[in-house]
Amino acid sequence: MFMIFCAAHLLIFSMLLKKVPSLNGVSSYDWPTNLMFLCGNFWLVFCGLKYKQALPAFSWKNYLAGYLLLLLFVYLINKRELLFLMAIFLYAGMYHNKRLTVYLYLFLFSLIAVSAYWISGFLILAFIYAVLSGLWERLSSGFEKVLALSGGLILLLVIFPLLNLLFQYQPQTLINACGPEIWNAMQLSAVTALVSTLMIFVMGVPLGYIMARNDFRLKAAVDALIDLPIMVPQTAAGIAILVLVGPKTPLGDFLAQQFGVSFAGTAIGIICCQIFVSFPFLVRSAINAFEAVDVKFENASRSLGASAALTFFRITLPLAAPGIFNGCILSFSRALSEAGSLMIVAYRPSTIPIMIDDTFNQFGMREAAPITVVFVGICFWGFISLKWFYESHKKRLSRA
User: Fold this and answer.
1) 232-237 long-range contacts, Cβ below 8 Å, gap at least 24?
2) Where do the DSSP E strands lie in 180-226?
């Protein structure tokens, strides 16, 4: 098999010999490039001999097949000579690690097939492969594997536009695009989203507990009303809020005159809109979390003489804490990205989603895109950090 491999390699190398036209019109060999091809082929054979000794399952046939795939796709079809040279050295050096070899193929595919989006394309394909490679062996049937591939496709369609956006601009461009107004808008968005999440937590967690532990008349109607803000268009929500507590409305005038509270064009109005659109995520998570807590723990606590309040705060709430915390993450993220209702209720002062919309309408894509990249980047890493904190402290939260 080794002799067949070497013979095939000599044949391939003879095909790779490159000629260049000289000044007198006579073709001559491009010796520097050919020498690099020769070195790459010697390196490939040398690594193959090492793998034959070190790897029990090593096969010259598979080794040559991987090389031929690189030759066909990179050199013969796409005419990328230097890239093919790099691929030879990397392929030979990485072959002992199957995953690294797959990442190399994904990198080359992204660089050639989607060259305009190769960074984001490679990151997404590598991420999907990393997930599927750990999941594939655990899937018991071909049907489950089809489902996994389908899920990876929809994940690709969702994530690709965002990752592609994140790699479109240099750091200096992003820094220059974000002036004081942008950072003030980001600060306002973060503060109001945090306040709205805390208010939903204080009032929504009790609602979630009552819904999870009691059956009562019209419970199905209340359960449907919890999810209603998800269905209602955001602009309709903003109009509904203004009709209730806006300027020149009975309740709005009463709150303004008696307490000095105004909703239109204020931070209070921003928080009100954020609560409206984001409270279903926390309340629904709280309901599911409380339903997952076994009632026998509460009954045992009550039988030992603990009050209902003490049982709730010492037993039920700690056990449901991981699910509730996950709901807080979703609710905060939804409040942070709210824009539709704020265009109606509080266009000024501007949160960052409103600032992006305003910049796009005034100056177009060129000015709005860098601001969007900064905001999406902050949201992306912030959301990942919160989810990581949730996963790493899940057991500790349940024991708190």
Assistant:
1) 233/340, 234/277, 234/338, 234/339, 234/340, 234/341, 235/340, 235/341, 235/343, 235/344, 237/273, 237/276, 237/277, 237/340, 237/341
2) none
Burial of 342 (0-12, 13-18, 19+ CB in 10 A): buried
Q: What is the mean pLDDT of each run of 10 residues along the chain (400 residues)?
A: 59 58 47 73 84 85 86 82 85 89 91 81 83 78 83 81 78 78 90 95 94 89 90 91 90 89 91 94 94 89 87 90 90 91 90 90 86 84 78 59
Closest CA to 199 of 278, 255, 315, 309: 278
Q: Which helix (H) or strand (E) holds 141?
A: none
Eight-state DSSP code of residue 314 = I
SS3 20: strand
Alpha carbon distance 23, 395 (integer Å): 75
Structure tokens, 91: 């392929």
Torsion of CA 96, 100, 105, 110, to 10 degrees: -170
Closest CA to 182 of 385, 370, 379, 382: 370
Quote the CA–CA distance of 301 and 320 in Å, as a whole number: 16
Q: How far is CA 270 from CA 104, 116, 351, in A?
A: 48, 39, 8
State how far the alpha carbon of 310 is from the alpha carbons of 134, 290, 314, 318, in Å: 43, 16, 6, 12
Joined together, the tokens standing for residue 51 give: 């793998």
The pTM of this model reads 0.75
Half-sphere exposure in the Cβ direction for 318 (13 Å, CA): 14
Look at strands 19-21 and 27-29 and give their pairing.
antiparallel
As to burial, measured by CB atoms within 10 angstroms (0-12 exposed, 13-18 middle, 19+ buried), residue 288 is middle
| CA separation for the pair 349, 271 (Å, rounded) | 12
